[in-house]
Amino acid sequence: MPTDEQIKILYEQLKTRNYVISHRSLPSFERHQDFVKSHPYRHWFLLRNEINYLGSFYLKNDNSIGLNLTDYTKESLGACVDFISNNFTPKESKPSMVPNYFYLNISYSNGQALSALQELGLNPFQISLRLEK
After folding, report:
1. Number of structural domains the chain divides into
2. Does a structural domain hold residue 133?
3. Regarding beta strands 64-69 and 103-105, do their DSSP bridges make them parallel or antiparallel, or are they unpaired?
């Protein structure tokens, strides 16, 4: 679980995201903190270079990967994909619940990430649509 300082950094990253899936309006810091503490992911990482934080990514127990970067370049995405491939094994599959491979969730409108990931050899296999009531 991220530390309090990491939760603050994640919130600062959340405030600057161009692509979001999980919310429509920015939650309060307290709500964000509660979310992070009550939704422990399998692994959660902050990405940074020598100067700045570049985003975060997480692995969930259903083998999904969430990517939240400030810039979705082929190099940064490739580094994430390579790190995950070299350091983690997908959880055991469960029919209709958990596939036997990792899969990435990205915003449908994030064409830059989709293009870069396809150049890296990843291929789309599903589109999720939101049914609003």
Report:
1. 1
2. no
3. parallel
Range of the domain at 109: 4-119
- Residue-wise pLDDT for 112-121, tens only, equals 999 999 999 9
- CATH no. for residue 86? 3.40.630.30
CA–CA separation, 106 and 111 (whole Å): 9
Q: What are the distances in angstroms from CA 68 to CA 19, 28, 43, 47, 96?
A: 8, 18, 14, 10, 26
pLDDT one-digit tens code per residue, 67-103: 888 888 999 999 999 999 999 999 999 999 999 999 9
Write phi, then psi, for 58 (nearest 5 degrees): -140, 155
pTM of the predicted model as reported, rounded to 2 decimal places: 0.76
Structure tokens at 36: 């992070």
- With respect to residue 101, please indicate whether it lies within any of the assigned structural domains: yes
Q: Which residues contact 61 (CB under 8 A, 6 or more apart)?
A: 41, 42, 91, 98
Whether 86 is covered by a domain: the verdict is yes
Q: Is residue 130 part of a domain?
A: no
* pLDDT value for 20: 58
CA distance 76 to 17: 16
